[in-house]
Write a structure and sequence with these properties.
With 184 residues, this protein is mainly β. The chain has four helices and eleven strands.
């Protein structure tokens, strides 16, 4: 398997979200729960194999391979709601300039000035019925195949909003996990 065509080595970290609570539980018709502290931040600390410090998925065993979520800004359904951002999407990292969904099965490196952060891009983050409620009718369908990805951080790092370098680690994730092991 060869990696997707890599973009220029620069992307933009457009937004970062850290939210300690789940907002979308129960039925969409009942509306989301409040999230008084979940917010967009200028920087986020990521810990190896644990996730985003302060986020609802941090150090949760059930989310070991999905503790960080990443989405492409170009995939936001702006035609349905021009104000949509990570607060509705509930992803942690919004990147501009890269089709991150194309990198499933690969490890990628992001560096926004706080040192390189390596993420194993494990699987798609599928949009749920809540998208039609919080973004607008048709959002779930519009996001199919481009709702972002679920990742495992393979290194510690700090991400900041702004310019970042991006590169593909030249190994598939299965190779990275065999070499590094899940807890090494």
């Amino acid at each position: 398997m060869s990696p997707p065509n890599a973009p220029s080595d620069e992307v933009e970290v457009a937004q970062l979200l850290v939210s300690p609570v789940h907002r979308y539980s129960g039925r969409p018709a009942e509306g989301p729960s409040t999230d008084p502290v979940g917010r967009l931040v200028r920087q986020a600390e990521v810990r190896r194999h644990l996730g985003v410090v302060g986020d609802r998925y941090f150090a949760q065993a059930a989310h070991h391979d999905a503790s960080v979520t990443v989405m492409a800004a170009e995939s936001l359904p702006l035609d349905i709601n021009p104000d949509v951002d990570l607060r509705q999407m509930r992803r942690n990292i919004l990147l501009r300039g890269i089709d991150i969904d194309a990198y499933i099965g690969w490890a990628v490196e992001l560096d926004s000035g706080g040192g390189p952060l390596i993420l194993a891009v494990n699987r798609a983050a599928r949009p749920c019925a809540w998208m039609d409620t919080v973004i607008g009718p048709g959002a779930q369908r519009a996001l199919r195949g481009k709702g972002g990805v679920r990742c495992t951080p393979l290194s510690d790092g700090v991400l900041r909003v702004g310019r970042a370098s991006f590169c593909v680690v030249k190994q598939s994730i299965s190779r990275v996990n065999k070499v590094a092991g899940p807890h090494s």
